Amino acid sequence: MSIAIMILLVGAISYFTLPLESYPDIAPPTVQVSATYTGASADAVSHAVIQPLEESINGVENMTYMTSTATNSGSATITIYFKQGTNADMCAVNVQNRVSKAQGLLPQEVTRIGVMTQKRQTSFLQIDALECTNGEYDEDFISNYLDINVIPQIKRIKGVGDVMELGGTYSLRIWMDPAKMAQYGLIPADISAALAEQNLESPTGLLGENPVNGTHGEGIDNPFSFTMKYTGRLASIDQFENIVLKALPDGNVLKLKDVAKAELGAVSYSFHGGANGHEAVCFLTFRLPAPTPRRPTTSSSTSWTSSRRTSPPASSSPRCSAPTTSSWPLSPMWRSRSSWPSSS
């Protein structure tokens, strides 16, 4: 009995003094490959994106198995699991090499957006939600605020592999009128081509530049040289609405606003969040393959407190105080709710 009590006391003391790094890494290393095929169904994503990637990734060094998911929103996700003890960095490099071989087999729309390869565990550390309790900001604004100010801070925390936002940031959306487009003989590809031609960054060069040496440009004596500037990508709804689609037989030009409506909306409407009856956006924090899950969780909560300095301005309404972001409710306007998954 005395030996059992001594072992119990030694174990209790060791529990509080044992470093976190001494705990064994139970979860196997995982690498996630994600891609987006805009407008495609789950079946199209499975055949055009996932199948070529799986055939190329299959058999990568130290791989045990892999799983894949395709959604009707056009997203494709492949998770590759490796043997315990395999270096996670080398796993990501080997998978990236296999993905590069399959780039030529993927649709052009997918390669234009890009195929992302990253090491990330499938289990998440915590779930957070940011809500606006007075209704001043909508879900799109909250999502955009998270994407710009909060999520980059959390991604810089040591041990955090990725942050998944369950919402869509701001995006300019064009709603086409099928009847008007048919009247002018247009199809969606015509509008996409016009956007690609007139909404771009382009180098414009110099005006009046003299040769440094040689006989080129002999007789040209310009005292000044001007750097030409281009307006670049369109930045407002009016600029998008005035995109020229084609010339009409009567001499007029057909603009985008004549056949479609442009507005500032969300990049995706696949998610809708709420908390306590208010507008809210949730996001999940995933960890890197490492045996120290408690450390990034604590740092993530600290990051919430440091986000107060970048909070948007509060309304002038007397029932609103200055906005605050933290792991726990600190003001009536902005509140973030956090929950940690229990471990068995």
What's the topology here?
Layout: H1 2-17, E1 30-36, H2 42-57, E2 63-70, E3 75-82, H3 88-101, H4 108-113, E4 116-119, E5 124-132, H5 139-155, E6 160-166, E7 170-176, H6 178-183, H7 188-198, E8 206-207, E9 226-227, H8 237-241, E10 244-247, E11 253-255, H9 256-259, E12 260-266, E13 274-275, E14 278-287, H10 294-306, E15 334-339
Antiparallel strand pairs: 1-3, 1-4, 2-3, 5-14, 5-15, 6-14, 7-12, 8-9, 10-11, 13-14
Verbal overview:
The chain has helices at residues 2-17, 42-57, 88-101, 108-113, 139-155, 178-183, 188-198, 237-241, 256-259, 294-306, and strands at 30-36, 63-70, 75-82, 116-119, 124-132, 160-166, 170-176, 206-207, 226-227, 244-247, 253-255, 260-266, 274-275, 278-287, 334-339. The protein is of the alpha+beta class. Strands 5, 6, 13, 14 and 15 form a five-stranded antiparallel beta sheet that branches. It has a four-stranded antiparallel beta sheet with strand order 2-3-1-4. A two-stranded antiparallel sheet has the order 7-12. The longest helix has 17 residues, at 139-155. The protein is elongated and about 100 Å long. Residues 314-344 have low confidence and may be disordered.
Count of helical stretches? 10
Cα distance spanning the termini: 29 Å
Residues in β-strands, percent:
25-35%
Largest sheet: number of strands, sense, barrel closure: 5 strands, antiparallel
Which consecutive residue ranges, at least 5 long each, have pLDDT under 50?
314-344
Mean pLDDT: 78
* Helical content (DSSP H or I, runs of 4+): 25-40%
State the shape: elongated
Category by helix and strand content = alpha+beta
Overall strand count: 15
Q: Measured on Cα atoms, how large is the radius of gyration?
A: 27 Å
What order do the helices and strands follow? Answer: HEHEEHHEEHEEHHEEHEEHEEEHE
